[in-house]
Amino acid sequence: MDENRKIRVLVAKPGLDGHDRGAKVIARALRDAGMEVVYTGLRQTPEQIVAAAIQEDVDVVAMSILSGAHGHLFPRVTQLLKERGVDDVLVIGGGIIPDEDIPALKAAGVAEVFTPGTSTAETVKFIREHVKR
Amino acid sequence: MAVQELVSRALAHDVRAVSRLISIVEDRREGFEEVYASIYPHTGKAHVIGVTGPPGSGKSTFVDKMALEYRAAGRTVGVVAVDPTSPFSGGALLGDRLRMQRHALDEGVFIRSMGTRGRLGGLSTATSGAVDVLDAAGFDVVLIETVGVGQSEVEIASLADTVILIQVPGLGDDIQVIKAGIMEIGDVFVVNKKDRPGVERVVAEIKMALDLSAPGGHPEGGADRDADRRQWRPPILMTMAESGEGVAEVVEACAAHLEHLGGAGLMERRLRRARAETMEIVSQRIWRGLRERPDARQEAERLAAAIAERRIDPYSAAIDLYKLLISAESARG
Predict the structure, then answer these.
(1) Regarding beta strands A36-44 and A8-14, do their DSSP bridges make them parallel or antiparallel, or are they unpaired?
(2) Most buried of A76, B69, B73, B186, CB within 10 angstroms?
(3) Is residue A68 part of a domain?
(4) Is residue A121 assigned to a domain?
């Protein structure tokens, strides 16, 4: 009877860069695709992101990063989720991320990385096909 | 995980269990009635405070600062923040949390964002359920932030023990304030952004509106509303939520209001909520029956045709349909 089930997504900006246009574009696109998007804004620590993801019981954590700190911050989020016993949340990332960094991020539990030029429709499709519950 | 285990973990303040229970209630997933039945005996302890006001009046920032005040006093806080669901896509951008993330690492604060999911009135259907889960989990205070309201979104009045109505300077003339509805629900009035020009005028307008409506002047509001009002004169407080100035006084005023309500007044408020909620659940069940049951839909179609052909009138047809739904409901138990 889960007639009211909606995909819930946390959109977060980890790290220190102050540019959230991309995150906002994604947030809006997901909203327009019928999802509930919790937007937490700039300069979030991985700890804050994970705490918010748990309280909001989201299906997806979507992070955007432009500062180059993805190699540290994305895996930290997946690790913290694991430590808290959360294994049913899809973690995705986006931003300025060199292709050669992507395999390591995926190995760390980031399901997909969307770099500039990705259409929002692609991201929506990926989420719909990969949510874990 | 089994519902019962989730419930016992939530009652022990386990964050993930609390969070999952809210989802179960919000989505009306399998077993949500069972959740309700198990948690309800543990509810009724929290001070439930509604924060409402027009869009952009500073509700989220204000709730953030209220939570800080309560935490400084050693009290735990649950927050339910409601934002509008798009009527076009069914999606929602829930942005209230943006101003509250400082609490993310404080286990004494639990924040949950919700979309209205098609409901008008300032709340979502599941808001009361989320409040009950947080109450049962032992949060001392539950703050509900409504969507930005206009002139008639007064649902919060039947859910909260205390309603804070936020106004800001510069929104309109005094006739806005005395239009029906919204002014009657405030137990504590806050004029936020007090550094802005026109603040004294807003205070004066609220004062005047309260004077006009003070002694037993709510024919539509019902007797209980009047009884509350007889001794309680809603205070009007000026704040700057951004800096936190004046928020401590609002917290004090809420405590004073709760004290004023006392046992009898609180019971009166909760009776009001119980009435509204039960009616709502009953009507939802009837709707669901109409939507989901093939026999009911078929009968509805048959009756619609009969009405259109003037063989039966709409009221008699409705009674027939209602009887069909009720008999099947009681047969199902």
Answers:
(1) parallel
(2) B186
(3) yes
(4) yes
